[in-house]
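Box 3.1 A note on notation
Throughout this textbook, protein chains are presented in two layers. The first layer is the amino acid sequence; the second is a token string describing backbone geometry. Keep the layers aligned when reading.
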Amino acid sequence: IFVLFCPPTYCLLNVLPYISAAKDAAEKGALLCGQGGAEAIGEANAMVFNADQLFPAGTVNLYQMKILSPNPIDHAIVEAAAVATAAKSPLADMFNRMAQGREDVVSDPVDAINLEGNMGISGWIKDRRILTGNRLLMETHGITIPPVTVDRNILEKGFFPVYVACAGVPCALFVVGYNVD
């Protein structure tokens, strides 16, 4: 009798943790692919995500904006939205919400998108370079921005400074926050 009941009992005891884990994962919209899948994931050295998977629409929010030059800010926002959208940046949704209804300002396509390391993005619209990113990006391109103490104050409050420059002129400082699940 022991030989008869041992294999099914062993199989059941081996599968019960996966059933429980799969049920918990399914409630959160995930899928567990059995022992083989778990072992394959456990041996992975890297995972690839798109920015929109980590920061879907609505997770990057604007908390404050400071205008840095007399340039038309609406034009700068629309250009930043066009470059961020072309680069598939997490900031694209925020800029697009701000530029809603003004897409007609930029009629030329965005060219030469460049993801500049951990600094931000740049792109060309006609003959104008649009930069969107942190202090280091602006300093790398010779853009004069407010003192570093401004960035420190923003970071201490749990937000992030994002600068936008158009055609070599600083346009605005955006204080953004990331609300991720």
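The chain has a mean pLDDT of 81. The CA atoms of residues 18 and 34 lie 7 Å apart.
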